[in-house]
Amino acid sequence: MKRYIAKRLAMLIIVLIGVSMITFVLVRMAPGDPAVNLAGQHANEQVLESIREKYHLNDPLYTQYVIWAKMVLQGDLGTSIASHDSVFSEIMDRLPMTLELSIFSMTIAIAVGVLAGIVSAVRQYSKLDYSVMFGALFGVSMPVFWLGIMMIYIFSIKLGLTPVQGRIETGIYINKITGMYILDSILTLNWPAFASSVRHLILPSLALATIPMATIARMTRSSMLEVLRQDYIRTERAKGLSERAVIYKHAIKNALIPVVTVIGMNIGVLMGGAVLTETIFTLPGLGKYIYEAIMAYDYPVVQGFTLFFATAFVLINLATDILYAYIDPRIRYD
Amino acid sequence: MEQRKRKTRLQETVHQFRKNKTGMFGVGLLAFIVLLSLSAPILAPHDPYDASLDRRLLPGIWSDESPDGFFLLGTDSQGRDLFSRILYGGRTTLGIGFVALGIALAIGISLGLTAGYFGGYVDDIIMRFVDIMFAFPALLLALVIAGTLGRGIDKAMIAIGITYSPQMVRVVRSGVLMIKEMEYIESQEAIGSSHFRILFRHIMPNSLAPIIVYGTLMLATAILDAAALGFLGVGAQVPSPEWGLTLSASRQYLLTGAWWAATFPGVAILISVISLNLVGDGLRDALDPRLKGGAKL
Q: From residue A198, how far is each of A144, A182, A188, B77 by CA, in Å?
């Protein structure tokens, strides 16, 4: 296990170097003068010159990369053209919002997906099974942006049940501790803020949860079916254990192991979905941030964000893999 | 000993697939959608670009207010016939998906074959590169590439194609690895066949089945991403009838009660993707019945 982790960490370094190179090249590949791309269309000659000097734009590409990489390692991801703020601090400002949305969505997706998958497998070929699988087919095929818009139309515009956009009603005061409004309102026992932020987050979370929910349900079902066919389950049944005990005490535990990987894989789906969801529901998170940066050709933000996010994504995947190896000792580490 | 004619893995998969009712339904649905899009010039009752502000946001035939001009699904905010736009839009949205898949296949097959067949450090280099590409979530990478290259249908195709190729490399490579160890390949090597001949006459045809299965499933998500890029404004540009773009342009009119303009393009996307997933799931079950019920790659 230790060797496995060491090996994965060594590979992590290679991947991260590769990621940084791709991110670096991607922005240098953009049409136009890189100095203008990094400083903005309206920058004057003096600013351009200082940018050229800071990033050594007159030097060969590899020198530029090394200099840029050094700055990145010191936490300097560049400066946003639009706001003149540090990209790193802007990311940190928006991270809690997206984290909150992702955690909320993933909780819904895992709870509903796992439950639906188990029920579906236990009652294979029943009407319930068919409806779950039918629903899951819709889920994996769903254009998230369309679903979000339809939800707004039905629940917010027609029925008036939920707010159309934003994180919290104006006028409700919230004491920011973590930046995650639901958590903050619980910590400060601020129930009006809690109710309001949950009401704001419910539709975006549901929209974002759709695809992961469907893939988790499918995976849980097939993995559960696999486990139920195993010899040890037959033995339990032969021993006269009730079907309930067989399923809840023995089958579920093993069936959920592969689901961990699916959950890990869905983190990426979640991030792509966050761009769409945050744009539709006007939530000030990372998804909306990168989208606006792309639309405004704010290259330093695009570059800094891509690097930051890919790094986070690689680390999360590594964590899932290690977790997976830990809970399923049958996995061979090489 | 064996009397039955030996089937290739692909023929076996197709044979199994034809027994799958939902899969065959998916094929029918997909054929229907593709046919509708291809015959848009014949079927469309109106010019999809013909705008006129005095017939903007007219409801379709479900409403009493629907005009005589025959606008089946109503008109959009520019007064263009929504049904005609959806027919034409299918060509764009599905087209982006198909071309993107083509790019992913070209990169995936060439790199996957090379990595799997030659192994060693060639394999190491290619697979490390694939690992690196996997560090970027698909839609996000497509968005960043499209945002960097510029906007437009061609950029969206390239962006999605690049984004999906690492997955394809893995599929192709694992197919090659399975076949490479078989005796008939060894015998080909023994009689001195060229690498080229072994690769394209023997390995490639026999690793086609998983490529088709995962290609179909990939096409489903590629179309979702094509529409998403159009929706976000980095894919197809105005006045293209691309589904995602049409949807996004009609969004703001939901508040006025004109629900149809934003609803139907989404329905079109949903149905297309469902048909592809039905086909893909059916093919995958046929290829490997153990995976029945759908564990995605």
A: 20, 7, 15, 34
Please report the pLDDT score of residue B26 as a whole number: 96
CA distance B22 to A11: 42
- How many Cβ atoms are within 10 Å of B284's Cβ, its own excluded? 27
Mean pLDDT of each 10-residue bin along chain A, 334 residues long: 84 90 86 82 85 84 90 90 91 94 94 95 93 95 95 92 86 85 89 91 95 94 90 87 84 86 82 91 93 88 90 87 80 54
B67 part of contact set with chain A, CB < 8 Å: no
Mean pLDDT to the nearest integer, B7-36: 90
Q: Does the distance separating the beta carbons of A290 and B140 come in below 8 Å?
A: yes
Mean pLDDT, rounded, of chain B: 88
- Residues of A with Cβ-Cβ distance to B234 under 8 angstroms: 294-295
Of the candidates B132, B148, B231, the beta carbon closest to that of A30 is on B148
> Which 3-state string (H, E, C) describes chain A?
CHHHHHHHHHHHHHHHHHHHHHHHHHHHHCCCCHHHHHHCCCCCHHHHHHHHHHCCCCCCHHHHHHHHHHHHHCCCCCECCCCCCEHHHHHHHHHHHHHHHHHHHHHHHHHHHHHHHHHHHHCCCCHHHHHHHHHHHHHHCCCHHHHHHHHHHHHHHHCCCCCCCCCCCCCCCCCCCCCCHHHHHHHCCCHHHHHHHHHHHHHHHHHHHHHHHHHHHHHHHHHHHHHHCCHHHHHHHHCCCCHHHHHHHHHHHHHCHHHHHHHHHHHHHHHHHHHHHHHHCCCCCHHHHHHHHHHCCCHHHHHHHHHHHHHHHHHHHHHHHHHHHHHCCCCCCC
CA-based nearest residue in chain B for residue A23 = B144
Question: Dihedrals φ, ψ of B117, to 5°?
Answer: -75, -45
Residues of chain B with Cβ-Cβ distance to A27 below 8 Å are: 148
Predicted TM-score (pTM) of this structure: 0.90
Contact B248, B230 (CB under 8 A): yes
User: pLDDT at position A320, please?
Assistant: 85
Cα–Cα dist A214/A132, whole Å: 9
Whether the predicted pLDDT of B54 surpasses 70: yes
- Chain A residue with CA closest to B229: the answer is A276
Identity of the residue in A15, A142, A291 whose CB atom sits nearest the CB atom of B232? A291
Chain B residues with CB-CB distance to A16 below 8 A: 135
Which tens digits make up the pLDDT trace of A8-51?
A: 888 889 999 999 999 898 888 888 888 888 888 888 888 888 88
Tell me, yes or no, if B295 comes closer than 8 A to chain A by beta carbon.
yes
- The residue whose two tokens read 């009407």 is A127
Test mutation, B126, B143, B278, chain A, max A CBs within 10 A? B143
Partner residue opposite B293 with nearest CB, options A18, A221, A262: A221
Q: Give the per-residue pLDDT at B293.
A: 45
* Interface contact B247-A291, CB threshold 8 A: no
Please name the residue of chain A whose CA is at the shortest distance from the CA of residue B231.
A145
Residue type, B158: I
Cβ count within 10 A of residue B70: 12
Q: What is the ipTM of this complex?
A: 0.89
For the ranges B113-117, B257-261, B293-297, the lowest mean pLDDT is seen at B293-297
Taking the C-alpha atoms of residue A256 and residue B293, their distance in angstroms, rounded to an integer, is 16
**pLDDT at residue A334, rounded to an integer:** 47
Residue indicated by tokens 């599905």? B94
Of the partner residues A143, A262, A269, the one whose CB lies closest to the CB of residue B227: A143
